């Protein structure tokens, strides 16, 4: 995840970002997908660090979405910070498929930076 800001800055023409799973095993070297996700020990303003705010990604594909607290937090962050986002494609994890309607309802009500953003379930 630490490489995400570098990837986004190095690829200004990136229009589709596909991610398999939004969470990972946490170690003492791990961070969130964007450095501007608030941390307890950090006092740096979010706007100063956000690599997503200038990102041109139009399509975000999330596979194996499980709707854990961490995944919902990360999804909220992506939707709130990606101003050019037009489509979010969400693939629900197999073990959460029975909760698909509930997950759909939760995601559809999240605020978005882009008024053009639509969420699709695949």
Automatic annotation (TrEMBL):
<protein>
    <submittedName>
        <fullName>F-box/LRR-repeat protein</fullName>
    </submittedName>
</protein>
<feature type="domain" description="FBD">
    <location>
        <begin position="50"/>
        <end position="122"/>
    </location>
</feature>
<dbReference type="InterPro" id="IPR006566">
    <property type="entry name" value="FBD"/>
</dbReference>
<dbReference type="InterPro" id="IPR055294">
    <property type="entry name" value="FBL60-like"/>
</dbReference>
């Amino acid at each position: 995840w630490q490489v995400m800001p570098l990837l986004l800055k190095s690829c200004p023409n990136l229009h589709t970002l596909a991610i398999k799973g939004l969470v990972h095993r946490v170690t003492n070297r791990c961070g969130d997908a964007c450095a501007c996700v608030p941390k307890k020990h950090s006092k740096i303003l979010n706007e100063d660090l956000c690599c997503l705010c200038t990102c041109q990604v139009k399509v975000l594909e999330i596979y194996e979405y499980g709707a854990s607290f961490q995944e919902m937090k990360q999804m909220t962050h992506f939707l709130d910070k990606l101003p050019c986002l037009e489509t979010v494609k969400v693939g629900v994890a197999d073990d959460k498929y029975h909760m698909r309607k509930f997950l759909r309802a939760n995601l559809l009500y999240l605020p978005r930076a882009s008024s053009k953003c639509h969420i699709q379930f695949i």
